[in-house]
């Protein structure tokens, strides 16, 4: 039997092959991450603009509950966008203004 250790050059060539495979794998990971980032950016660019005003509706009967400034995190799940004149009309018709985002202040609607 040959119990001699492999020559140093063979060991270095083996190490090189292992490292090349590791490098290829790392490059695949980088390419996949770059693709995910590009898709995320495309998704953000394609997203419609946030509405300026929101009408929050009740869960069951779907009647108006409150008016919010667009993007208000207190608006809840059931909302629909409103144009400025619709938001003013809703507030003057007695629909509650959100006490957090204060749409009546933004719209200039006074009691």
From TrEMBL:
<dbReference type="InterPro" id="IPR046200">
    <property type="entry name" value="DUF6233"/>
</dbReference>
<dbReference type="Pfam" id="PF19746">
    <property type="entry name" value="DUF6233"/>
</dbReference>
<protein>
    <submittedName>
        <fullName>DUF6233 domain-containing protein</fullName>
    </submittedName>
</protein>
